[in-house]
Design a protein that fits this description.
Elements lengths: L10 E4 L6 E9 L5 E7 L6 E5 H5 L4 E4 L6
Antiparallel strand pairs: 1-2, 1-5, 2-3, 3-4
Length: 71
């Protein structure tokens, strides 16, 4: 099964620390052709981390959080 691609603005919670909310703020491909994303911690606002997109898409590491829309 193909994984959904990682996109700007998507939000995730870490499986090991579900209190932190992370948002994709930057995407790039490294020199070896591996796509990466920088995540900004929306809970603390000071922490950012870079992971390969495969790590972010791994349900053992992160769970996607759907954006809520105002009605």
């Amino acid at each position: 099964m193909a994984r959904k691609p990682i996109e700007l603005g998507q939000r995730f919670r870490g499986v090991e620390n579900p209190r932190s909310l992370w948002e994709v703020e930057f995407l790039y491909t490294d020199g070896h052709g591996v796509p990466h994303a920088r995540l900004r911690n929306l809970t603390t606002r000071v922490d950012s981390r870079t992971y390969s997109c495969d790590v972010i898409a791994d349900p053992r590491r992160f769970r996607q959080v759907e954006l809520e829309t105002a009605e």
